[in-house]
Design a protein that fits this description.
Helices cover 34% and strands 13% of the residues. It is α+β, with helices and mostly antiparallel strands. The termini are far apart.
Length: 850
Amino acid sequence: MTRWNISMTRWNTKKATQWAAYSLAGLVVLIVIGLATLITLSVLIWPKLPDLDTLTDYRPRVPLRVYTADGFLIREIGEERRAPIKIENVPLALKHALLAAEDTHFYEHMGVDFAGIARAALANLRSGRSGQGASTITMQVARNFFLTRDRTITRKLYEILLALKIEHNLSKDQILALYINQIYLGQRAYGFEVAAQTYFGKSLGELSLAETAMLAGLPKGPSTMNPIVNPKRAKSRQGYVLGRMRDLGYIDEAAYKVAIEAPLQTASGSAARDPSILSPVHAEYVAEMARQMAISQFGEQATQRGMKVYTTITRAEQEAAYDALRQGVMDYDRRHGYRGPEKYITLPNTKVDAGKISDEFAKAIDDELAKTREGDEQTLPDYGDLLLAAVIDASPDEVTVYRNGELIKIAGNGLSFASPMLKANSPQTKRVRRGALVRIRNGGGSKGWELTQVPEVDAALVSVDSKTGAVRALVGGFDFNRSQFNNVTMAKRQPGSSFKPFIYSASLEREGREYAPGSLIPDEPLYYPAGVTGKTEWEPKNYDRKFAGMMTMRDALARSKNIPIIRVLEDITPDYARGYIANFGFNPDNHPPYLTMALGAGSASPWDMATAYAVFANGGYRINPFVVKEIRDVNDNTLASFNSQVAGEDAPRVIDARNAWIMDSMLRDVVSRGTGSRARVLNRRDIAGKTGTTNDYSDAWFCGYNPTVVAVTWIGFPTPRNMGSGETGGTAALPMWINYMRVALANVPETFLPRPDGISMALAGEGDHEDYYYTGRKPPELLSPVVDDTGLLQELVGIPSNAQNYVPPAPVPQTRPSNQTGQPPRPPGEAPSIPFAKPEDVTSLGELGY
C-alpha cells in the first residue's frame, strides 16, 4: 500500500469516527428531549385519563337473541354480537396462541413493552413506512375501551399511559379476560366466544388447535384476514401463529404439523360449498319482527342487555319454508332467461397460468371487489348461496371465476342457463366476459358449480297454526340482505281468485238467496257499457276465454270461473259482501264495494290471507296470528309472554260452522280436481285451498290448508308488473306451497273437520251426484231431469212439480247484448245499484283471477 493510500485511510477513519460521535451525541440529545417531552406530557395528561369504572365493573353490551320455539338461535341483534366468557373457562390453547401472536411477554411487562416499541420504531425507520406496531394486549384493551384507532403520537401516548394505569388497577388475568371478551374479530363478532361460533359453529372449548390458532390471528386484520372474506390470508396468518407457538414451546413439532395441514372448514363456507351441511336458521324477517316487538316493550335497551326472545316458529319448518320459497323464485327466474352480469370491473393484465393465481393478482381483485361493497349504490353482497365472483376467463365451453382467493372452473350443465350471454354475438353490455361480476351457486353432489343470477321477482310464505294463530314459518322475501321489506306483513297486493271463497261464503249466508254448492249459476257472457261502469265498457271473461253455460257453484270455484262469481256478487250485492268479509279479519276499506271485488281487485297481505283462510280451516273461528311467544332477561326470568285465543275455546266464532264445513269441502275440490290439482302430489285428501292470479299476471297466490296448519304463498315483482304469460297461482305460487307442506305435514295424520248438524244432502248438477245444503232450505235445482231404468220420469227434489214440462234455461247467446247491461234480473222489490267505482278509480277491469 502506498503512503498516499495509508494517509487517505487514516483520514477517512478519523472522519467516520467524528461523524459517529456527532450522530451519537445528536441521538442522545434527541432522546433526552424526547424523554423530557414525554415526562412533561405524561404529567399533564395523567390526571385527565378516564376512570377505569368501565373495566373494573365490566358490563358488556350483550345483544338481543332471538330463538326458535325449539331453542335454536336465529339471530343476535345489537351493535355488538358478544357472549362473555370467564377467564377460567378460556382454553389454555387460546391463551398460548394469543401470547404467541400478540404479546409474548404479557405476564412479564408492566403494560408497555418498551423494548418492543424500540424494535418496531427501528424497523419502521428502516423500511420508511409505519408497518409495524408494538401494542401489548394491555395497550389494545386501552384502545378498544377508551380510544380511537387514529395513528397519531398523542393517541399513542394516551394508549401507553392508560395501559400503565390499567396494569396498576387490574390483575393480568382480568386484563386478558377483558381482551378476550371485548376485541372485534370481524363478521360483527366481538370476543372470541362469538368468533368461534361465527367462523366454526362451535364454542371455544370445542375448537381444534388449528381453529384456535386461526382465531388468535384475527386481531391483526379482523375484516381482511378472516377465513370467510379471505381464506388464503387467514391460512397464512394461522401458519404464523402456529409457528410462534412451536418456537415458544407451547406445542411440539408433531402438533404443529397436524394443525398446519388441517383443511380450513368454516361454518358458513362449508354451508356455501355443500348445501347438505346444516346452516343457521334462515329467519331474518322473523328476527326483525321480534326485535321490533322487544323494543316496543322495553325500549332500545332490549338490544343491549342480553334479552332473549322466543318465537313460535320451528327450525325444521322454517328451513323448509325458506328452501321452498328460494326454489320457487329461482325456478321462475330460470323460466325467463339470463339477464347478464351485474357489473364489470377492471382486472390486472396478469395472465393466470395452470389455474394458479399470484398474491398480487388476488389482492388486486379483492380490492376491486371490496369497492363494490362500499356505498349504498355499489353494494353487491352474497345472497345466501348466490355468491359473487369475478370472471377471469370465459368461453362458450368453460368459464373461470375468482372468489376469495380461489379459482373455480364452470363447464357443461353449469353454463346452460347463461349460455346465451357466452356467445360471441351476445350484447357487449350483457356478455359474460373477463372482468364480469357474476353469481355462482354450488348445486351440491354431481351438479357442481353453475352460473346463475339474483332474481328480480320477490315472494312471501307464511304458515300459522289454524287453532292458535302461532306462526309456524315466515319468509318475508327472497333475501333479507337484498330487501328488509317484509312481504308477508307489509305488501298489500291484489289477491285475485284466492278471494273468491269469501264471496261464495257470503252467498251462503245472504238472507233470501239460499245459495248452496249445488246452486246453478250461468257461466255466460256479461257486458257492462261505459254508462254503467262510469268510465269504460267492461266485458269480463274467464281465464280460458271459454263459457261453460250453467254450472254449479262448486264447479265454478274448482275451475276458478270468473263469470259465475261476478253474477253471485251482483246478486248478494257488493255492500253485503264487503260487510261480511270483515268476519275473516279483512279491512273493508281495502275492498271497495264494486263488482271487481269478486275477482280479488282489492288489496290484502299474505298475513291477512292466512288469517282469513284459518277461519275455514278451524271450523269458523277467527284467530290472531302471532310470532313472539315469550321474552326473557339475561338470567332467563320471564319478562313478557303472549297467549292467544284458541279456536273452539275462547276465540270468537265469526261464521256458521255449517258454512266453514261446506266451504272446506268446496276448497278440497279445488285441490282434488281443480286449479290446485298439482297439490295432489302430496297424496292427502284433507288439503284444501285456492289459486289466485291477478290481471296481467302481476300477482300469483296459493292459499291452502289442512285443519291443523294454514299456509299462504305469493310471488310478484316489488313494483307490480307482468310476470309473463302463464305465470298463474298454480304455476308460480303453488309449487312453493307444496314443498313447504310436504315437510309441515310429514308426520301429521289426515284430519277432517267434524260435520256439524244442520246440513242435508240432495242431488245436484245433472242429478248424477249429491251435494250439501243448509237443512230447512229448498234444495238447489237440477240442471236437467233424471230418467230411471224404466224410462219413467222421477220427481226430484229441486225440480218443479210439473217436471215433465221442465225445460232448462236457454243459454244466453255469446254475443254482446244491445241496449241492455247484460246483468241478470234482480229479485223483485230490490232497488238496483251501480256496483262500480268512480271513473277515476276504474283502472283495471279485465279477466282477473285463476
